[in-house]
Amino acid sequence: MTESSEEPIAYGHEDATHRALGGVEGIRRLVELFYEEMDTLPEAKRIRDLHPSNLEMSIDKLACFLSGWTGGPKLYSEKYGSIKIPIFHQHLPVEEAERDAWMLCMEGALARMDYASELQSYMMRELYVPADRIRVVVANHRAGRVEGKNAGAIQIKAR
To answer: Per the structure, how many domains does the chain have?
Structure first.
């Protein structure tokens, strides 16, 4: 067995994840592939139908969000303002099936980018948190439960 002189990438530390994803350009390509998956996977039809036919703004918003979320430039807040993703989605019918379909689209897009398996696993594990948070906020909204004023905020920190 040979030892690698390279240390493993510390995803989640500073901008390591952002760089591993290929920076702003790599993230934008990932998001384009994510929406291609959404357009083609039968399991994603319900969530695709929740989006406008022209996905240009959806692509831009997700790419901008992921840039800051992975430790890169905070493009979403610079362009669109505060990030309250669960609150912005609370009017939509997001349950487990929709969350899982979203995650399936991301899994396919990550695989198509040919990223290291460790990076793919890391992204899937970390993205599950906001995806499920959206589901919880939607369920609480539908049940008439009001959460704290910052409950829908997604904290952007170096990842």
So the answer is: 1
